[in-house]
Amino acid sequence: METEFNTVFELYQNIVVQAAALYTRNQHTAEDIAQEVFRRYYIYAGCGEVENVKGWLLTTARNLAYNYVRDHRKEVLLDVNTEGETLLGYGDSPEKAFFEKLWTTEVLETTDTILSALARKNEKWFDAVTLVYCMEKPQREVAESMGISYEGLQSMLYRAKNWIKENYREEFDCINKA
């Protein structure tokens, strides 16, 4: 069991951290979430309850990250080097800093809404979009990892983007302006 766990950990550690970082926008939090994902995997795999390992790990990471973001949405952390200067009277006005932070939060929430809907619509589309556009993986590498041709991946991305435009036109335009 332990050898199998170590193999799974080595294979998927980086992608689980990247997936968590995609949602939390924080590397340290993503690493903590990944640790929890693998702790749960160790428990569930011991009971024989995990069939699709990669899918289970990524889904668990996504769910834990969603929960973290939801639970910590109201927290506002200041970067002392940038936002702290504004609060101390340097740089932009406090109103400008507030509205920029608000705008960034709205864009992130809108992106989260769109990606959640895309995941419900078609999980393969979601995987392709997050790997290519959010994690900025090369398309050929993503196509290979998904077991499809490069042209098939491009077609999948095109269909996913059109679905997003059809169902979330206003939100999509808002994100593109950001």
Automatic annotation (TrEMBL):
Asked whether the UniProt record includes Endoplasmic reticulum among its keywords, one would answer no
Which InterPro entries does this chain map to? RNA_pol_sigma-70-like (IPR039425), RNA_pol_sigma-70_dom (IPR014284), RNA_pol_sigma70_r2 (IPR007627), RNA_pol_sigma_r2 (IPR013325), RNA_pol_sigma_r3/r4-like (IPR013324), WH-like_DNA-bd_sf (IPR036388)
Any single Pfam family the record assigns to this protein = Sigma70_r2
Which keywords does the record carry? Answer: DNA-binding, Sigma factor, Transcription, Transcription regulation
Which intervals hold domain RNA polymerase sigma-70 region? 9-74
Keyword DNA-binding present in the record's keywords: the answer is yes
Q: Which domain of life is it from?
A: Bacteria
Q: Which family does it belong to?
A: Belongs to the sigma-70 factor family. ECF subfamily.
The protein's name is Sigma-70 family RNA polymerase sigma factor
The organism named in the record is Dorea acetigenes
